[in-house]
C-alpha cells in the first residue's frame, strides 16, 4: 500500500499535476488528485488496524478492502467529484448498505429533512451561479493588470481585491452546493439526532434530526466572518476535516501540542494537492500566517474587552465587528490574488500593487503576539485542523467542544461523523 501511494503521488506530481508546463484547463491532474485523495484515507485506515486507535479512527476503520463497484461508487458520487473528500468511506458504506442511522431498525430519518436540505443547497447553487455570471465579466482578476486599477488610490485597490475574491468564491459555492444538493436528495446528508427543548412538548427534550453532513460551505458566514479562526466552520469544511484527520493530527506527536510548523506543513500539503504553481505555494503559506495571526488578535481581544456586551444595540461593538470583517476579508482576498494569478511574476505584481500591506499587518501582529503574549483566561484548548483552501490551529475555547465526544459520534443509533461540531472555532482558507 505504501509503495502504491508513493507511485501515485509521483505520477500525480510529475505527469499530471497542474504545473506551469500544463495549463489548468488541459491538465489531467485534477481527476488524478480525486483518485489519490480517496486512496490515501483507505490505506491509512487499513493501517490503523495495526495501531492504537482514537475514537474517530475506531468509528471509521475497516479491516478489509471494499469491492471495486462500492469503491468506484464512492469515488465518483456527484458530491465527491465537485468537492474534496466530502465524507468518510465508512459513512458512505453504511449508507449504501443501510446500516447505522440508515438501518431499517434505526429511528427513521424524515424524508422532508433530506428534501429541504437539498432545496436549500440548490437555491444557494443557483444564486451563486447568477452572482458569478453577472459579476465576473467586469470583476475578474485580470482587472488588476489594467491601467484603471493602477490609477486608483490604495483603499480602492484593497476593496477591488475584496470584490474580485468574493466573485470567484461564488464559483465554489455553486459547485459545492450542487454536490451537496445531490447527496441531500439521495439521503446522505443526515448528520445525527439531537436532544432539544421543544415548545410543542412543553419544554421537554425531544429528538430532532440534524442535517449538514455533506455541506461544504456557508456563503454568508464566510463573507461576513469576523475572524479567520472561524472560517473552517464555514468554508470547504469537508476537505478541512480530511486534512485535519490525515495530515495535521498525524504530524502532532501524542502528548504534544501542534506548532506553527505543523500548521504551515498542513497548508503546504494542501497547496501541493492543488498543483505546482508558485501562486498556490504563496497562497497556502500565507494562509498559515493569516490563521495564526487571527489567534493573536482573538487573545488580545479577550484580554482587552473581556465579556463586553456583543449586541447589535452596542454601536461600539458594531463598529469593531465591521472592522474585523473588513480585515478578515482583506487578508483572505489579498492572498487569494496569488491563488488566481498562479505565476510568480503576476502574483508578486498583484501583492506589490497594495505594498504588501495586508501581509505586513498579519506578520507584525504575529510577531508582536509572540514577543508580548497575552495570558489566556480559562478555556480548554481544542486541536483543530483544516485545509484546501485549508488549515489547522488550536481554538480556544471550542464552540462545539470535544469533551466527552471526541469524534462527534455519540449516537447509539449508528456512526455519524459530526466534525462540524468538533471543529469548534477552527480556521481555514479560501
What would your notes on this structure say?
The protein is mainly α and 430 residues long. The chain contains 17 helices and 4 strands. The protein has helices spanning 2-16, 29-48, 55-60, 68-76, 78-82, 89-96, 111-135, 147-150, 154-186, 219-223, 237-251, 260-274, 278-305, 315-341, 344-352, 357-371, 419-422; strands at residues 190-197, 205-211, 382-385, 392-395. Helix 9 (154-186) crosses helix 14 and helix 14 packs antiparallel against helix 15 (344-352). The protein is globular and about 65 Å long.
For the CA atoms, what is the radius of gyration? 22 Å
Name the overall outline: globular
Biggest pleated sheet: 2 strands, antiparallel
Question: Percentage of helical residues?
Answer: 55-70%
Order of helices and strands: HHHHHHHHHEEHHHHHHHEEH
Give the percentage of residues in beta strands.
5-15%
Unreliable stretches covering 5 or more consecutive residues: 1-28, 379-430
Distance between the ends: 32 Å
Q: Order of strands side by side in the largest beta sheet?
A: 1-2
Mean pLDDT: 77
Q: Helix count, per DSSP?
A: 17
Number of strands: 4
Structural class: mainly alpha
Amino acid at each position: 500500500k505504501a509503495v502504491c501511494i508513493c507511485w501515485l503521488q509521483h505520477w500525480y506530481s510529475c505527469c499530471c499535476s497542474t504545473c506551469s508546463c500544463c495549463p489548468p484547463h488541459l491538465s489531467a491532474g485534477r481527476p488524478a488528485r480525486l483518485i489519490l485523495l480517496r486512496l490515501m484515507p483507505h490505506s491509512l485506515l487499513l493501517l490503523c488496524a495495526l495501531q492504537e486507535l482514537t475514537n474517530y479512527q475506531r468509528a471509521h476503520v475497516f479491516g478489509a478492502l471494499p469491492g471495486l463497484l462500492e469503491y468506484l461508487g464512492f469515488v465518483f458520487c456527484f458530491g465527491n467529484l465537485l468537492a474534496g473528500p466530502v465524507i468518510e468511506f465508512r459513512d458512505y458504506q453504511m449508507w449504501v448498505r443501510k446500516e447505522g442511522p440508515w438501518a431499517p431498525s434505526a429511528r427513521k430519518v424524515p424524508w422532508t429533512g433530506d428534501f429541504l436540505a437539498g432545496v436549500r443547497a440548490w437555491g444557494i447553487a443557483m444564486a451563486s451561479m447568477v452572482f458569478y455570471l453577472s459579476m465576473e465579466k467586469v470583476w475578474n482578476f485580470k482587472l488588476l493588470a489594467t491601467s484603471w486599477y493602477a490609477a486608483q488610490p490604495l483603499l480602492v485597490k484593497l476593496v477591488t481585491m475584496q470584490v474580485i475574491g468574493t466573485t470567484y468564491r461564488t464559483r465554489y459555492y455553486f459547485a459545492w452546493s450542487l454536490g451537496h444538493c445531490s447527496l441531500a436528495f439521495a439521503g446522505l446528508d443526515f448528520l445525527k439526532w439531537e436532544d432539544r427543548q421543544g415548545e410543542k412538548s412543553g419544554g421537554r427534550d425531544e429528538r430532532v434530526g440534524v442535517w449538514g453532513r455533506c455541506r461544504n460551505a456557508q456563503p454568508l458566514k464566510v463573507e461576513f466572518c469576523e475572524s479567520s479562526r472561524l472560517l473552517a466552520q464555514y468554508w470547504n469544511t469537508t476537505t478541512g476535516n480530511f486534512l485535519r484527520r490525515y495530515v495535521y493530527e498525524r504530524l502532532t506527536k501524542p502528548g504534544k501540542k501542534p506548532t506553527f510548523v505543523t500548521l504551515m506543513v498542513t497548508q503546504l500539503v494542501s497547496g501541493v494537492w492543488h498543483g505546482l504553481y508558485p501562486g498556490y505555494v504563496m497562497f497556502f503559506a500565507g494562509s498559515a500566517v493569516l490563521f495564526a495571526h487571527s489567534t493573536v488578535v482573538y487573545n488580545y481581544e479577550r484580554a482587552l474587552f473581556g465579556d463586553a456586551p456583543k449586541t447589535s444595540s452596542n454601536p461600539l461593538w458594531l463598529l469593531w465587528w465591521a472592522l474585523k470583517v473588513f480585515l478578515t476579508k482583506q487578508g483572505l482576498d489579498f492572498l487569494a490574488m496569488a491563488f488566481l494569478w498562479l505565476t510568480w511574476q503576476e502574483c508578486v505584481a498583484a501583492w506589490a500593487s497594495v505594498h504588501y500591506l495586508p501581509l505586513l499587518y498579519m506578520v507584525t501582529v504575529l510577531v508582536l503576539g509572540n514577543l508580548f503574549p497575552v495570558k489566556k483566561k480559562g478555556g480548554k484548548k481544542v486541536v483543530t485542523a483544516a485545509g484546501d483552501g485549508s488549515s489547522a490551529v488550536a481554538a480556544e475555547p471550542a464552540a462545539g467542544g470535544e469533551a466527552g465526544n471526541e469524534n462527534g459520534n455519540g449516537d447509539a443509533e449508528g456512526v455519524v461523523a459530526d466534525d462540524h461540531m468538533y471543529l469548534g472555532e477552527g480556521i481555514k482558507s479560501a
